[in-house]
Amino acid sequence: MLLDLGRLDSQPFWAGVAMAGLAIQLIVGLGNPGPEHAATRHNAGFWCVDLLAERLHASWRAHARYHGEVARGALSGHELWLLKPTTYMNRSGLSVQAMADYFQIEPARILVVHDDLDLPLGALRLKQGGGAGGHNGLKDLIAHLGDAFWRLRVGIGHPGQRQQVIDYVLQRASKAEQVCLDEAVDAAAQVVPALLTDGAGKVMNKLHRRVPVAAGELSGN
């Protein structure tokens, strides 16, 4: 069964999952630490792993060895590590490599959730490998790990002009945009059980067909 990645139902999102798909061991959310960054677009990766930790009843703990906050949960008996690097975005690779090395986790078993300027607001895409696309967090991860890790891209839209990008990603979304982002993060958190159950191919197809829930509402504003 492939979970509905658009909206949540009343059941726990991991109900009925039988492990058979991609063997992900570590899920990393990219973002910047501190309350001044918590609600900015660049922290969409943090939002997703925070929601995932909540649904797995996993608690975050600061861990100096991994330069970040770490949580551990279980999904149908399969242990998952969650990580939020607290190194700031452009040094994320230091944190992820420290944890991957300690637990001997191969890059192909790591899923990185991050904001993406090149995707429409609220869109989600799953891919493995590739370049950084101008994203400083990905750039540092590739420098430390290579490019074999999986990426779950959360579309935040583009401001239109290159010179506006830095301010755009470090600002809060408008109220209407945040509705769309919240729906996307909600759906992104459901990718994990579907990925473990059905594998990457089916999840990719589902995400490519998915229409952001609030897109119609935004077009009328």
Descriptive terms for the model:
alpha/beta; Rossmann fold; 221 residues; seven-stranded mixed β-sheet
Task: Characterise this structure.
The protein is α/β, with parallel strands linked by helices and 221 residues long. The protein has a single domain (26-219), classed as Rossmann fold (3-Layer(aba) Sandwich). It has seven helices and seven strands, in the order E-H-E-E-E-H-E-E-H-E-H-H-H-H. The chain has helices at residues 44-55, 92-103, 136-145, 165-169, 175-198, 200-209, 215-219; strands at residues 26-29, 61-63, 68-75, 78-85, 110-116, 124-128, 150-155. It has a seven-stranded mixed sheet with strand order 2-3-4-1-5-7-6, sandwiched between helices. A hairpin with a 4-residue loop joins strand 2 (61-63) and strand 3 (68-75). Helix 2 (92-103) runs parallel beside helix 3 (136-145). The longest helix is centred in the C-terminal third of the chain and has 24 residues, at 175-198. Mean pLDDT is 88; it is low at 1-19.
Structure summarized in a few sentences:
With 221 residues, the chain is α/β, with parallel strands linked by helices. Helices cover 35% and strands 19% of the residues.
Radius of gyration: 16 Å
Report strand %: 15-25%
The total count of helices amounts to 7
Q: Helical residue percent?
A: 25-40%
Output the strand order for the largest sheet.
2-3-4-1-5-7-6
How many E strands? 7
N-to-C SSE series? EHEEEHEEHEHHHH
Largest sheet: 7 strands, mixed
Class per helix and strand makeup: alpha/beta
